[in-house]
Amino acid sequence: MGAEVTNTGAPGRRRGRRIDLRRLGRAALSGSGARGRLPDAIDHVAKVHRAHHPGADLDILHRAYVLAESSHRGQTRKSGEPYITHPLAVTLILAELGAETTTLTASLLHDTVEDTEVTLDQVGEAFGEEVRFLVDGVTKLEKVDYGAAAEPETFRKMLVATGNDVRVMSIKLADRLHNMRTLGVMRPEKQARIAKVTRDVLIPLAERLGVQALKTELEDLVFAILHPDEYARTRDLVLAHADRPDPLEATATRVRAVLREAGIAAEVHVRRRHFVSVHRVRIKRGELTGSDLGRLLVLVAEDADCYAVLGELHTCFTPFISEFKDFIAVPKFNLYQSLHTAVAGEDGQAAEVLIRTHRMHRVAEAGVVALGNPYAAPEAPDAPDGERVDPTRPGWLSRLLEWQRATPDPDTFWTSLRDELAQDREVTVFRADGGTIGLPAGSSCVDAAYVQYGDGAHHCIGARVNGRLATLGTVLRDGDTLHLLMSPDSASGPSPEWREHARTPAARIAIDRWLAAHPAPDPAADGPPAAPPAPGPPRTAPRAASAARDPVAVVTGAAGEGGRAAVSVRLAGCCTPVPPDEVTGFAVRGGTVTVHRAPCPVVDRMVTSGRQPVEVRWRSPDGTGGGDYRVTLRAESFSRPHLLADLTEAIAAEGVAVISAAVEPPYEQRVRHTYTLQLADAAQLPELMRAMRRVPGVYDVERAGRSLAAPL
Fold first, then answer.
1. Is 135 exposed, middle or buried (0-12, 13-18, 19+ CB in 10 A)?
2. What would the pLDDT profile of 409-459 be if each residue is shown by its tens digit?
3. 181: how many CB neighbours lie within 10 A of its CB?
4. In 223-365, where do the E strands start and end?
5. What b/e string do you get for 611-631 counting C-beta neighbours within 10 Å, with b at 16 or more?
6. Rounded distance, CA 54 to CA 698, Å?
7. Which end of the chain has fewer beta carbons closer than 10 Å to its terminal beta carbon, N or C?
8. pLDDT of 465-517, one tens digit each?
């Protein structure tokens, strides 16, 4: 999978050991050495492997090496080294991370099927189905068969295989790391092309799988190729500080003394930042100090010791509280756990501190590789579609596997994959039924609907976030509680606006597919049409019934027996008060008193402007009165066909006449209906509002003049 040669201009730092390819090439061809020993070329890989797995059976590694060496014999890399040096280097990278024996066996053989006469069936017969599956997963598809689609289709194949066994991607990442180290003799344009794919796809995959040791070196190698000037500037900055006293070493000595005095067993190390990390810090902070070029790493035995260390540091040093993050209580989506804080060193500069257990550190460095063989436990049953059930499969990978099935076009898949991987954070949302949904940061309710319901999300008509009604475009935050509201009408579907709210490829692909299948939807499906106003008062400002028919209210304290005012009284059209509403009045031109409901916003404006309120009361002592009453109601609803007819029918069933009705244009599947109604008795109003709320799709009914909980 790689025919490149050593790149002498690549960055020189490396977490593990570098391999002498010429010495390794000679050892690869030198045979077994003494009887009973492993071949010299594989012996040092076995020693590293045994350091992590003391009881490992090395016979299978011996046999895999012999097959790989004999199959690749006569093949060389562009630098002249025997080709076997590449699978050996990949295997050593994985051995240093603690990979188990099956992964190392497959890594030795990962190029045999692609570049030699060895077949997958032969690999399976000699080493078992697991090794066969891993080798197949990382084998490229031929350009002869796929043309320009070979690369995206190879990644699709590899990701599907990773969905069944995460070790496939571990081998691919180690393979790409060694190829990136040895990229120097490639033409500059080919180096740039490989570096861009590494940046856009493989580095995000390494981040998601938690393999930080591979991710950081890949970042530096890509940085050197794609941004050589910035890389050189950063390298010079690091070298300029190399001969100066290191303030972090002094802080580390103080931290060791504090923890020793507190009786906490801990290792304290100075952990240097890699070049890309230094570059990012320089962009963020500007001028850098020696403390900015690294961080302190504190390793302890137990989780509780992490918090004990944190307490001592915050007690004995000046902490920068804004830098504190607890990834132990709330791990990252890629298995990462650690406490992050920062304290002031002797020079007053902030020294960042990472606090972990030894196990957390292994996982932080090696990610899924540190999990070993996820299938070593009692074998999981086969899934209905033939894929093995992987208990370690992260949520992002499950989402990716779902949407890639619906994306047959290689270009669309490639673009969607890079968009998906560009999201570098995840949030967890709690469903109303107690389950959880993992989503990329920035996702909306639309994205959550398609994760939870698949194509069934087409019928989503609304959502409640943390108990409050929210638009489908609402961006979800970590820890939100989400209740999706679904329409029983199977004819409903997404509107074009949903496409703007969708952040995940799965949602965008599903919406595009539905819209393509419904190119000319009936405009009536987007919302009920506005009914023409019935003869009578204007619909925008319904007026109260005439004083001759409607014994509405009286002004208290006016001349005349029984307190009846010798002035005319008019009910305000903005809030249409009815008994037994609490009311107040204001005198207007011509001596008329306009009566408003007490909560009406107009009342506050009139008082603020200096207008004096007039005391009014309903005519009848019991507050009910007699005659006909007009009231304006607003119904907040989710758009669906026949909604206006159903609401009108519900109103008529209560014996209430509709004077006028208006429907605002639908927005994000929501619509507002405004009705002016005539009631024979004000006591009908509460039951009328309850009847309207019972209409499917209606989620709120309010009197006009009151601010709604969730305005459009």
1. buried
2. 777 777 777 777 776 677 888 888 877 888 888 889 999 999 888 888 888
3. 23
4. 267-272, 294-300, 325-326, 339-344, 350-357
5. eeebebbbbeeeeebeeebbb
6. 67
7. C
8. 888 878 888 899 888 899 988 877 666 788 888 888 888 888 888 888 888 88
136 in catalytic set: no
Q: What is the pLDDT of residues 74-99, one digit of tens each?
A: 888 877 788 899 999 999 999 999 99
**Residue 444: C-alpha distances to residues 472, 498, 669, 671, 703 (Å):** 7, 10, 15, 20, 31
Q: How far apart are CA 580 and CA 618, in angstroms?
A: 8
Judge whether 217 counts as a catalytic residue: no
**Residue 484 has which token pair?**
């999706």
Task: Please enumerate, as own/partner, the contacts of 468-471 that have beta carbons within 8 Å and a separation of 24 or more.
Answer: 468/709, 468/710, 469/699, 469/700, 469/709, 469/710, 470/445, 470/710, 471/445, 471/668, 471/670
Instruction: State the Cα–Cα distance between residues 243 and 471, nearest whole angstrom.
Output: 58
Q: What is the pLDDT of residues 343-367, one digit of tens each?
A: 998 778 889 999 999 999 998 998 8
Report pLDDT digits (tens) over 565-604: 446 777 776 777 877 778 888 887 666 788 888 888 888 8
Exactly one of 114, 387, 497, 664 is catalytic; name it: 114
Measuring CA to CA, which residue among 272, 252, 250, 249 is closest to residue 260?
Answer: 252
Distance CA 483, CA 468 (A): 9
Catalytic residue from among 4, 111, 115, 420: 115
Q: Is 306 exposed, middle or buried (0-12, 13-18, 19+ CB in 10 A)?
A: buried
- CA–CA distance, 403 with 551 (Å, rounded to integer): 66
Cα 299 from chain centroid (whole Å): 30
